[in-house]
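Retro notes
What went well: the complex prediction finally ran end to end.
Inputs used:
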Amino acid sequence: KNQVEQSPQSLIILEGKNCTLQCNYTVSPFSNLRWYKQDTGRGPVSLTIMTFSENTKSNGRYTATLDADTKQSSLHITASQLSDSASYICVVSVSSGTYKYIFGTGTRLKVLA
Amino acid sequence: NAGVMQNPRHLVRRRGQEARLRCSPMKGHSHVYWYRQLPEEGLKFMVYLQKENIIDESGMPKERFSAEFPKEGPSILRIQQVVRGDSAAYFCASSPGDGNQPQHFGDGTRLSIL
């Protein structure tokens, strides 16, 4: 069964600190892995997209890694800001005819001043 | 360059009524996806459409739900005879193509059933 699991469910950190969010997946055949940021009451916004051959991709203070062998990904946030408070969603794309997108339930990050 | 526009942002219906949710994709995008998000849960895929065609509706309930993306105008997600369990946030996303193309999301329609 295609599944995407994220951990932790929620996380509280102080402004300026770094943090790492985890995503494990059991998806086949794998096409790509995406990280989204979803602010409360808004739609998700794409942070990174990685294909099978990519190990790391950065977008400003966000760095995503992918280990296709262990089927794990992480999102590292550097020097957190209050505006980073949001849900971070890992999405894995399955390629079988058409593309299907399997969403994780997200990690709720709260950054405190 | 407007993003994905969804309307209404909030919709309240009584049980048994019909709900129509609209999605205007980004300019130049011909692929539209609808998702449902229940409180405290992740987004669940419902249907994938290209202009005038339903490509994949495997996530959409067989009864009461339908979707279209006409040649002209927005994509419509239609829910007939709504029930309390239909209360959720419905998000639309668009992309210029499939595969490794990023999806751009609207801010959703929050549907409440009384």
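What we learned: The radius of gyration of chain B is 13 Å.
What to try next: split runs per interface for comparison.
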